[in-house]
């Protein structure tokens, strides 16, 4: 039986302001106070697992234990077919210690060029694992995916992370060019959130 969320406060286990804002928007229909792990002064745990789901659970469990409140963590990334799924769970690490995603996007472009240049398959997907954990250690985890292709050079300034180089199937604009409300409707995070809300918030 899936556990239902019943509180009025939820900690977002992230120090990424863009991600916290996006999650707050996605939970806007619920009367819940959203607090970031950074607001609590909680450290970012080392992501030692090898899957999105396990890393999301690791982060959510740490934030729930540290805050004594239910916590929601997102572990998401870009998976490029021609790069054997990289950067994958290492998507944030490709941006370096300064979280420089312009650098990360250049690394993706350079890796593709080294593989096969302009003829290389640019198919990619965004994956998002969402884990909702309680202070007693119980977690509910859901995974969402959106398929698309890469676009170089980067375009748009509305998103964050790898959004400026990702075009979802059926679209011509990158995630950083489309209206945020539209992105919230079609993204990997939206897919995972739909599952989360259906199972834990109804």
Task: Characterise the protein shown here.
With 202 residues, the chain is of the alpha/beta class. It has one domain: Maf protein (Alpha-Beta Complex), CATH 3.90.950.10. It is 31% helix and 22% strand. It is built from 5 helices and 6 strands. The protein has a 6-stranded mixed sheet.
Spatial gap, N to C terminus = 13 Å
Beta-strand residue fraction: 15-25%
Q: How many domain regions?
A: 1
Can you tell me the CATH architecture? Alpha-Beta Complex
Q: Tell me the radius of gyration.
A: 17 Å
Largest sheet: 6 strands, mixed
Please give the structural blueprint.
Elements: E1 9-12, H1 17-26, E2 33-36, H2 52-67, E3 71-80, H3 101-116, E4 123-133, E5 139-150, E6 166-168, H4 180-186, H5 188-200
Parallel strand pairs: 1-2, 1-3
Antiparallel strand pairs: 3-4, 4-5, 5-6
Tags for this model:
alpha/beta, Maf protein, 6-stranded mixed beta sheet, globular, 22% strand, 202 residues
Give a short synopsis of this structure:
The protein has 202 residues and is an alpha/beta fold.
């Amino acid at each position: 039986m899936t556990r239902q969320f019943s509180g009025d406060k939820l900690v977002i286990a992230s120090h990424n302001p863009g991600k916290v804002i996006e999650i707050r928007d996605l939970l806007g229909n619920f009367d819940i106070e959203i607090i970031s792990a950074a607001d609590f002064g909680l450290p970012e745990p080392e992501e030692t697992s090898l899957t999105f789901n396990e890393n999301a659970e690791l982060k959510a469990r740490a934030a729930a234990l540290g805050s004594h409140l239910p916590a929601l963590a997102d572990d998401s990334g870009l998976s490029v077919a021609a790069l054997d799924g990289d950067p994958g769970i290492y998507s944030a690490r490709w941006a370096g210690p300064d979280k420089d995603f312009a650098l990360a996007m250049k690394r993706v472009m350079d890796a593709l060029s080294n593989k096969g240049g302009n003829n290389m398959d640019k198919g990619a997907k965004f994956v998002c694992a969402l884990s909702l954990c309680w202070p007693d250690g119980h977690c509910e985890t859901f995974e969402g995916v959106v398929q698309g292709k890469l676009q170089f050079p980067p375009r748009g300034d509305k998103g964050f992370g790898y959004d400026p180089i990702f075009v979802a199937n059926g679209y011509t604009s990158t995630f950083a060019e489309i209206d945020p409300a539209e992105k919230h409707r079609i993204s990997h995070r939206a897919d995972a959130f739909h599952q989360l809300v259906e199972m834990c918030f109804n």
